[in-house]
Design goal:
The protein is mostly beta strands. It contains no helices and 8 strands. It has strands at residues 2-6, 12-13, 28-32, 36-45, 52-59, 64-69, 80-86, 89-94. Strands 6-5-4-7-8 form a 5-stranded antiparallel sheet, with no helix packed on it. Strands 2-1-3 form a 3-stranded antiparallel sheet, with no helix packed on it. A hairpin with a 6-residue loop joins strand 4 (36-45) and strand 5 (52-59). The protein starts with a strand and ends in a 9-residue tail after the last strand.
Amino acid sequence: MMLQICLTCRRFQHHPRPICLACGSSDLSDTPAAGTGVVDSFTVIHRAEQPYILARVRLTEGPIVLTHLIDDPNPACDQPVRLDLRDGLAVFRPVAIPPATME
């Protein structure tokens, strides 16, 4: 997944645009996304053969994308997710968080 970065104010944006939404500069460049983020909101769509989850994901860099959340029987807000490809489409799946250790 590629994002645009403004070389003037260093803000990221997605989808590509001719100018920066933050400062109005046209000095933009493409950069690869980290591929991580958190679920802001989600809904389960039941109008298909198999229900699927539509999620609003805030990428680590800041932009928000609407995407499918896969392999998650119990979705939750603030859940960390990672970019994956399924059938050539960008989707997100939950990140396994290691259990906390007592020190």
